[in-house]
Each structure stands twice: as C-alpha cells, then as structure tokens.
C-alpha cells in the first residue's frame, strides 16, 4: 500500500492521494526513470531523480522556467500554486469564508484534486471538473493569499505535495518548497525579479492571450500579493538558507534556464 494512504485516517483524503498517485503512475515517471531519459538528455545529470525546488514571488517566471526544465530533463513539473488556487476556487463556489481554516480543511478532505501533466503544462481537475483555466481568474488570484495563509490549509496540503515529489524527477514551483515542503531537495533556487518587470511580463502574457490587462493594476496586485505571501505567519515566502538566489530581471528565459542547468550540473557532480 502506498505509504501516504497508510498514514491517513480519512477515507476521502486517501482518495485524493490515490488519484494523484495514479496519475503519476499512468504518466510513467517510474518507467521513464528506468529508461534513463534524464541521463540520456542530460549526460551531466549523474543522479537520475532529482527534486528541484523553485520558489519565488508571483510573476518571477517560475512556471515558464520549471516547465522548460522539466521538459528537457524528462521530469514532471508540479505547480503547487495551482493546488492553492483550486482550493480557493472551490471555497468561493461553496461560499466558505476564506479565513475559516477548519472549514477549508474539511472542504479539502471532500475534494478530489488531480494534477495531470500534459504537453501544454499541468492540467488541474477537481473531481470530474477541469479547473485549469478558471483557477487563473482574477477573482481567484486576488483571494488565494487569504486561503494560503490558513495553517489548516497548509497542513492539509503538505503531505499531498510531498507525496507528489517523493520519487524525485520533479521540478516543483511554489513559495515554501525549499523551506517547508522539500527541505532536503537536491537543488533549491529562489527566483525573483523587480515588481515592474514581473508586472510587465504578466501584462504581455495577458495581451498575447487576448485577456484584458492593465499594467498599473497588475503592478499593484503583484506588490500586494508579495506582501501578503511574505508577511503571513505560516510558511511565508522566504529564500531557504541553502537556496541559490537568481534575479531574473534582466535575464531572458533561455538565460535563466542555462543558469539553472549549470546549478543542476553542480549538484549532480
Ligand atoms: O504561483 P501562484 O501565483 O499560482 O500561487 C498562487 C498563490 O498560492 C500565491 O499567492 C501564494 C500561494 N502559494 C503558497 O502559499 N505556497 C505555495 N507553495 C504555492 C503557492
């Protein structure tokens, strides 16, 4: 039996973990490791199944970089922000007070979250409903920090995230991956960029997708989210002591990927 399920006493939570574990298996991480894809593409990568933690504030480019690295390494990309977003979306739909940690934790127990890697990135399902796009709405974006700061919510989601990463071969992005979720990750990178640059990137992304966008408003929202994420009491946004710091303000995507590839080389040597 899969260890996380054995530890859990709540049937519904077991179900969430099993579903995520299943989707991991279906996607064949274990097979891919056996085939040594990571080694074939990355001869410098001596250790096959690294856990790579990418933390940093909103809009630092973590997801773009994590996706690109995961693809090149034959690893799985796990966007933990999407988990907090899916919880927030469901809470808003159910009319649950976003400050009520106990109610939110009970709601998480009823959820059946699945993260499904795909060519386009990670797809997110809550039961049968695909929530990949709706969890990016500004309503969710502007409320997710309230949900993410509830200790009961972070507790309820911790095992799930650890379980997703336990076999390695993952690039996991978030806010507290290096400090709390995977304190023993093989490589930790704390990525950031100026608020102006992060707002500019988000604005360009919105415009390219045809989403209405206001640069000044984005800048304010990003600064506010930084403040809430870094000032919360539980697992605030912080650089882990053993994380590499990477300021991407003036770097291209390719430049950041190359910088992290060099770090992977270092930790694998
Ligand atoms: O990465 P993102 O912007 O999609 O994350 C959404 C929110 O979730 C973010 O404001 C903070 C929270 N979050 C968190 O608290 N811990 C994580 N590991 C990931 C995200």
Task: Tell me about this structure.
- It is a single chain.
- The chain is an alpha/beta fold and 269 residues long.
- It has one domain (7-268): P-loop containing nucleotide triphosphate hydrolases (Rossmann fold, 3-Layer(aba) Sandwich).
- It is 55% helix and 14% strand.
- The protein has 13 helices and eight strands.
- It has helices at 3-7, 11-26, 29-35, 37-41, 62-73, 80-94, 101-110, 138-148, 151-165, 177-181, 195-208, 215-231, 253-268, and strands spanning 51-55, 76-79, 113-118, 121-126, 129-130, 170-174, 187-192, 244-247.
- A five-stranded parallel sheet has the order 2-6-1-7-8.
- A hairpin with a 2-residue loop joins strand 4 and strand 5.
- Helix 6 crosses helix 8 (138-148).
- Residues 1-46 have low confidence and may be disordered.
Q: Please give the share of residues in helix.
A: 55-70%
CATH topology: Rossmann fold
Structural class estimated from helices and strands: alpha/beta
Bound molecules: 2'-deoxycytidine-5'-monophosphate
What is the arithmetic mean of pLDDT? 83
Q: How would you summarize this macromolecular structure in one to three sentences?
A:
The protein is α/β, with parallel strands linked by helices and 269 residues long. It has helices spanning 3-7, 11-26, 29-35, 37-41, 62-73, 80-94, 101-110, 138-148, 151-165, 177-181, 195-208, 215-231, 253-268, and strands at 51-55, 76-79, 113-118, 121-126, 129-130, 170-174, 187-192, 244-247. The longest helix is centred in the C-terminal third of the chain and has 17 residues, at 215-231.
């Amino acid at each position: 039996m899969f260890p996380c399920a054995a530890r859990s006493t709540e049937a519904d939570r077991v179900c969430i973990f099993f579903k995520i574990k299943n989707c991991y298996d279906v996607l064949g991480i274990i097979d891919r490791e056996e085939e040594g894809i990571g080694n074939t593409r990355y001869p410098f990568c001596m250790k096959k199944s690294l856990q790579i933690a990418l933390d940093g504030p909103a809009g630092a480019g973590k997801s773009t970089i994590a996706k690109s690295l995961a693809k090149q390494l034959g690893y799985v990309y796990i966007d933990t922000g999407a988990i907090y977003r899916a919880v927030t979306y469901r809470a808003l739909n159910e009319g649950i007070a976003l400050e009520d940690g106990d109610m939110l934790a009970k709601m998480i127990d009823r959820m059946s979250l699945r993260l499904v890697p795909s060519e386009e990135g990670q797809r997110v399902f809550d039961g049968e409903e695909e929530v990949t796009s709706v969890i990016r709405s500004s309503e969710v974006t502007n409320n997710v920090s309230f949900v993410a700061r509830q200790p009961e919510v972070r507790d309820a989601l911790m095992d799930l995230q650890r379980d997703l990463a336990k076999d390695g071969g993952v690039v996991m992005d978030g806010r507290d991956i290096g400090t709390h979720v995977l304190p023993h990750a093989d490589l930790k990178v704390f990525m950031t960029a100026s608020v102006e640059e992060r707002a500019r990137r988000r604005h360009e992304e919105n415009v390219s997708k045809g989403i209405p966008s206001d640069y000044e408003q984005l800048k304010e929202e990003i600064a506010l989210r930084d403040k809430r994420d870094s000032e919360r009491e539980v697992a605030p946004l912080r650089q882990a002591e053993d994380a590499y710091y990477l300021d991407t303000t003036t770097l291209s995507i390719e430049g950041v990927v190359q910088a992290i590839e060099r770090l992977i080389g270092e930790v694998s040597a």
